[in-house]
């Protein structure tokens, strides 16, 4: 038999969940104390829900402190609702929360941005908040407008939580370019840029070796791709 397996993170392990949560808590604390706008470009399926899950953990630990979170993606909202309607597909901890009448992806500080006017109003946010918007590569979607109105501000922060391929605005921002082209405009970068790992849905080295190691009979052939 042959096993076909990805190898994206085959050379390293993801940081521990608590370490990721603590780093995220620190980002939130800094933004809250400075009343900054914290923009998080994200993919709407999977990545957005991972962010909401961890922000929900921080909320339940009292570490959001009322600092508002805005989900500016209709597709991400619909996907989040699907998670809630299908608790049997979640892991045991999240599933138990849903059955108990709670949701791992809902918390007091979370606000859904459901109209264009609400989305535009985020450009004038004065008291700070966390804005989660697609797309993760910053090449399209609501996040383009969020960045056009925020990147040039010194009181704005951008948190990159995903892979930033070359020739994308996300890569230019991560690289530290002083000017980034967004939506046909040249935007000066004065915002504070931070990168975080630990949000990927890809298996890491530990997971991949565990997958092979649990097989009763070693495969005759292993084909690695996506590496």
Strand-helix topology:
Blueprint (H helix, E strand, L loop, with lengths): L1 E5 L10 H18 L2 E5 L5 H14 L8 E4 L1 H12 L6 H8 L10 E3 L3 H6 L7 E5 L8 H7 L7 E5 L8 H7 L3 E4 L2 E4 L3 E4 L9 H9 L7 E5 L2
How does this model look, in words?
- By secondary structure, the protein is of the alpha/beta class.
- The protein has eight helices and ten strands.
- It has helices at 17-34, 47-60, 74-85, 92-99, 116-121, 142-148, 169-175, 205-213, and strands spanning 2-6, 37-41, 69-72, 110-112, 129-133, 156-160, 179-182, 185-188, 192-195, 221-225.
- It has a six-stranded parallel β-sheet, with helices on both faces. Strands 1-10 form a two-stranded parallel sheet. Strands 7-8 form a two-stranded antiparallel sheet.
- β7 and β8 (185-188) form a beta hairpin.
- The longest helix is centred in the N-terminal third of the chain and has 18 residues, at 17-34.
């Amino acid at each position: 038999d042959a096993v076909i397996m990805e190898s994206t993170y085959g050379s390293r392990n993801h940081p521990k969940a608590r370490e990721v949560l603590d780093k995220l808590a620190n980002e939130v604390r800094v933004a809250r104390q400075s009343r900054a706008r914290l923009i998080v470009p994200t993919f709407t399926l999977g990545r957005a829900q991972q962010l909401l899950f961890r922000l929900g953990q921080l909320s339940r630990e009292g570490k959001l402190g009322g600092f508002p979170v805005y989900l500016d993606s209709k597709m991400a909202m619909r996907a989040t609702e699907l998670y809630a309607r299908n608790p049997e597909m979640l892991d045991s901890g999240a599933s138990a929360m849903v059955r108990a009448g709670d949701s791992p992806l809902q918390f007091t500080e979370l606000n859904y941005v459901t109209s264009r006017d609400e989305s535009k109003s985020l450009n004038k946010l004065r008291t700070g908040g966390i804005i989660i918007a697609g797309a993760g590569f910053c090449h399209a979607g609501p996040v383009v407008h969020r960045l056009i109105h925020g990147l040039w501000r010194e009181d704005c922060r951008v948190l990159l939580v995903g892979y930033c391929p070359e020739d994308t605005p996300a890569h230019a921002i991560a690289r530290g370019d002083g000017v980034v082209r967004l939506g046909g405009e040249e935007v000066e970068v004065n915002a504070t840029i931070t990168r975080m790992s630990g949000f990927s849905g890809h298996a890491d080295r530990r997971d991949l070796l565990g997958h092979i190691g649990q097989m009763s009979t070693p495969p005759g052939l292993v084909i690695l791709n996506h590496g």
